[in-house]
Amino acid sequence: MGGRLRIRRRWCLAAACLAAGALPVRADDGAAPGAPAAARRAVLEDARRALAATDADEGCDGPVAAVRADAAARGLAAAFALGDAEAFAAIVEATRGRALATALASRAALRDARKPADLVEADLAAARRVSVAALALRRARASGRVADVRAATRALTLARAERLAAAERLDAAVGCAVHEAPPPAPTLSTVRAGLGEDGALLVAAESDGSVRVLVATRDAARLVDLGPVEAVDAAIAASADAASGEGDGGAACTALAGALAPLALPPTVRRVTIVPDARFARAPLACAWPERALTWWPSMTVARLCAAPAERGDGVLAVGDPDFGPVSRGGLVRLPATRDEAVAVGDVTLLGEEATEARLWAALAPGRRWRAVHLATHAFSSGEDARTFSVALAPDERHGDDGLVSALDATRHGVCADLVVVAGDRSARTSDVAGDGPSGFVTELLRAGASGVVGSLGAADDEATRVLLTRFHALWNPRDEDGLPAAEALRRAQAHVRGQEGWSHPRYWAGWVLWGDPD
Questions:
Q1: pTM metric for this prediction
Q2: H helix or E strand, kind and range, residue 421
Q3: How many other C-beta atoms lie within 10 A of the C-beta of residue 519?
Q4: Cβ(283)–Cβ(242) under 8 Å?
Q5: Strand 221-228 relative to strand 199-207: parallel, antiparallel, unpaired?
Q6: What CA–CA distance (Å, rounded) separates 292 from 487?
Q7: Contact 179, 250 (CB under 8 A)
Q8: Is beta strand 452-456 parallel, antiparallel or unpaired with respect to 430-433?
Q9: What's the pLDDT tens digit per position in 305-355?
Q10: How many Cβ atoms sit within 10 Å of the Cβ of residue 354?
Q11: What DSSP assignment string belongs to 352-375?
């Protein structure tokens, strides 16, 4: 307990010093033309120290968030000027997926320890309350109502105190530390060693008004400047529109391929892992690279922590064609094609009036790990924050269920599955969280226990979606033999749809992406 309190006190002291300007990042960014390498190196080290000093749990805001953002900007500029790929990767890693990595590390520590069930449940429940309170505070800040912000701040403070107490009780019982700060990140060298001969890693970040990307293979790592933010954003926006059915699909794919051409990926690269910034998280990269299997990760640390267990899950739980009740309930209409989709891929199905929240959570109760959970229904977001995303199930007045399953619901209940497929419009959309990178329903499902998530960046065509996802399951999880890796299965399913008459436009296939790795 004493150790945990000392960590908390050190964080509070560091935060106070930074807010007061007592630990400033050096004013000279060291990246100006002709600046000595020593000056750039000093700026880089100052930036890394500032990030380390503020590397605490969720909730960095105000002056501390400003210090982190300034330190990251200066560190990235210096690392790029030095051509230091390792340092560039480390700076990005310090600002991506931190909250998710912390949650995953705590879960892994608990899994590997001897633990009293009641204390584990109390700790997990307290952690879920922190996540709920943190999101409530973000929503309150977005509303601008001072009273709501104050109430949400008090609730978050109380939830954190309860989590700290629960974690300390668990620490004392199991003799292991439940993480409050992100675990150490893997080095770029370690990540490169695991890429294989046909693999590549892309780490994207904005720096000095340009989009800069670390390109790493097993044999080499280099830093590439893709050019001004505006030009790259225009190409990505055009491809994103194409994935939603707007504009000239062929021209959009050509423009995105042109914007990415400076990356100069070798023809031998068949698998690409992407650690995206906000812009790359919304880019349907299959438009530019239809011949490559693509996987997105919030960070390299999350990739290391989120590996599927040695014992893979069993069976597919599929939800389709929920009965939404009267049309007055939000104007949702039933999707009959999703019934066929769920029946085609599912071993256990929840259909029509049976597709309720209560039945879903009962099927996902602890004690069983599914190979996949497939949600074929309407999906939508209630605001700009992608973490407010929900999928629509059948309402159930008997249990007080409104039928809307949100990211917070998934975090509360847990989703024990190798893979979750969310077959709804824009289900893979993310928003940028300051100091933590892209976040949305896909990343929250990883937090909830899934090892991988398939979703769509654009508006999904019902029939093309049914064909694509049915093909994906058949390739990835055949019932009588070993399947393909998920990223390759998704690539082949996209190619299958793209080859069908009338479905060559990117809107039918390009928007589907895989976050994480269920294999």
A1: 0.81
A2: strand 417-422
A3: 19
A4: no
A5: unpaired
A6: 9
A7: no
A8: unpaired
A9: 886 667 889 999 999 999 987 643 556 788 888 999 999 999 999 999 999
A10: 16
A11: ETT-BHHHHHHHT-TT--EEEEEE
Instruction: Work out the angle at residue 168's Cα, subtended by the Cα atoms of residues 165 and 173, and round it to the nearest 5 degrees.
Output: 130
Q: What's the rounded Cα separation, in Å, for the pair 20 and 319?
A: 52
> Do residues 453 and 442 make contact, with C-beta atoms less than 8 angstroms apart?
yes
Q: Are 314 and 419 in contact (CB under 8 A)?
A: no
Q: What is the pLDDT of residue 49?
A: 87
**Which residue, among 258, 257, 247, 248, has the nearest Cα to 284 in the 3D structure?**
257
DSSP letter assigned to residue 310: S
pLDDT the model gives residue 264:
95
Q: Directed axis angle between helix 98-112 and helix 146-174, to 10°?
A: 30
Q: Taking a C-beta distance cutoff of 8 angstroms, is the pair 182, 437 a contact?
A: no
> Whose CA is closest to 296, among 272, 265, 263, 264?
272
Angle between helices 146-174 and 2-19 (to 10 degrees): 150
Q: What share of the chain is helix, strand, coil (3-state, %, to 5)?
A: 50, 15, 35
Q: Which two tokens stand for residue 458?
A: 């654009």
Q: What is the pLDDT of residues 74-100, one digit of tens each?
A: 999 999 999 999 999 999 999 898 888
**What are the DSSP calls for 435-456, one per residue?**
TTEEEEHHHHHHHHT-SEEEEE
Please give the DSSP secondary-structure letter assigned to residue 394. Answer: B
Q: Where are the alpha helices (DSSP H) in 356-515?
A: 357-363, 407-413, 441-448, 462-476, 486-498
Burial class (CB in 10 A: 0-12, 13-18, 19+), 184: exposed
Structure-block tokens of residue 496: 């299958």
For residue 124 the two structure tokens come to 């997990």
What angle is formed at CA 60 by the lines to CA 58 and CA 63, rounded to 5 degrees? 175
Give the residue among 438, 436, 359 at the shortest CA–CA distance from 399: 359
Backbone angles phi, psi at 128, to 5 degrees: -65, -40
Average pLDDT, the chain: 83
Residue 9, pLDDT > 50, answer no
What does the alpha-carbon distance between residue 231 and residue 416 come to, in Å, rounded to a whole number? 41
